[in-house]
Design goal:
Blueprint: H1 9-13, H2 48-64, H3 71-80
């Protein structure tokens, strides 16, 4: 009986780099994942403060690499814009 040759299982299945990954075939089933939509191009007329906040949050997401920031991270963005809570009397 011939000796079995041990080869890594992953080397036969995984490409060497992400550039070698074949694109997935287009599916006609289900909705396609939406790409980034600039909130300033939506139908609704946003106020200047709203647009400033949305753009600041998008900048944070791009620079941090976090597409789903936590509430604490959103609060950081709001504070970086200069918003502070009014002290109640």
């Amino acid at each position: 009986m011939p000796a079995a040759v041990a080869t890594p299982r992953t080397s036969a299945r995984l490409p060497a780099s992400p550039d070698q990954v074949a694109p997935a075939p287009a599916s006609t089933k289900g909705p396609r994942r939406r790409r980034f939509i600039d909130p300033t191009t939506c139908d609704r007329d946003y106020g200047a403060d709203e647009v400033e906040f949305m753009q600041a949050l998008e900048r944070y997401k791009r620079t941090s690499g976090r597409m789903f920031p936590t509430c604490s991270e959103i609060l950081e963005v709001v504070r970086a814009l200069g918003y502070r809570r009014e002290e109640s009397i």
